[in-house]
Amino acid sequence: MKPPAIGTAELRDLIGEPIDRLPTPSVIVDVPALRWNIGEMAAHAEALGVALRPHWKTSKCAEIAALQVEAGAVGLTAATANEVAALAAAGFADVFWAYPPVGGPRVATAISAARRVRLIVGADSAASVSELGEAAVAAGTIIDVRLEVDTGLGRTGVDPDNAVRAAREIAGTPGLRLEGVFTHEGQVQGVGADAARRTVTGLAAGRLLADVAGGIRNDGMPLASVSVGSTAGARSAPTVEGITEARPGTYVYGDENQVAIGTVDPEHTAITVLSRVISVERGDPVLVDAGIKAMSADGSLHGDGRIGTVVSDHGGVLAMGHEEHGFLRGASGLRVGDTVRIRPNHACGLSNMHSHIVAVADGVVVDIWSVLGRH
């Protein structure tokens, strides 16, 4: 039998076939697990009374975004100009660009997207949106801006003590409208597997953001949105009174790092990489065709340096990788040509490395979904 060519169009010929016919490495998404994750997070947000605006950088698939919106998401979150442009082109109507639109190309993307969608941009200072304001005035439009507040991650975000001043400066910039405040409480994931500490850390981030929002409102500036965002913090930060929106992303797939810290159950992870054994000459490790070009080099929260974890019966971990070679340690009974499924450390980084994903159910290919807005 002639092997299939490696391309999205050719892969569509494999719809209805078992996954072992796929070329490797291939990114596999289990559709029942995916749908469970989407429905469960939507129900969680609804129970809390907060809007859900998933971060789309995890999947970058229009089909998955549509499922999230169908389940009740008010819109989507994006990180890059390419993601914003892709969402607008795909017809999604409400996009929050949670990244400072600094530089002419990003400004041009924002102005173009704002003609097609309801666009909100994120910024931690008036300086990071001054060029956008000028462009908005020239275009005869007004762009909504959310002020990013640092609640402990130490990345972008205004210091809470300076938030009122920054909000006032953004609100006073022609072409811009202060829409709300937001934070990324990524420090919750950094706490690791201690569930109690994760809860405390997430609650602290939510309370700090709500307090900042209160201070801005007391200064006479209305805010529509007070938005938190992370999968690790999704059970804590959005529960704080005054939070209006949650923006988790990784939940849609789950990944090994979320499993490692206990925020996602292994049975609910939807994403794996299908890989094939190419050599057993070393004994242990076994060599597979999923290296860092297939898995990404995102670090492991297990603390052992692995780049992925085998979820099929043979066991083992992908201990390290060269570009096209993966070093699989601790597996048993593998022969050349066998396939294994490997759960990646970080789903978002993995998605960006591939042009398409294979949607599967019960081990059978059901669809091929393009990955949009890469890089």
CATH architecture of the largest domain: Alpha-Beta Barrel
Average pLDDT taken over every residue? 96
- CATH superfamily grouping of the largest domain: Alanine racemase
Gap between N and C termini: 36 Å
Share of helical residues: 25-40%
Outline the structure in words.
With 375 residues, the chain is an alpha/beta fold. The chain has two domains: 8-29 and 263-370, Lyase, Ornithine Decarboxylase, Chain A, domain 1, CATH 2.40.37; 31-253, TIM Barrel (Alpha-Beta Barrel). Helix content is 30%, strand content 22%. It has twelve helices and 17 strands. An eight-stranded parallel sheet has the order 2-9-8-7-6-5-4-3. A six-stranded antiparallel barrel has the order 10-11-14-13-12-15. α7 (163-171) links the parallel β6 (143-148) and β7 (176-182). α5 packs across α6 (130-139). The longest helix has 24 residues, at 195-218. The radius of gyration is 22 Å and the shape is globular. Residues 1-5 have low confidence and may be disordered.
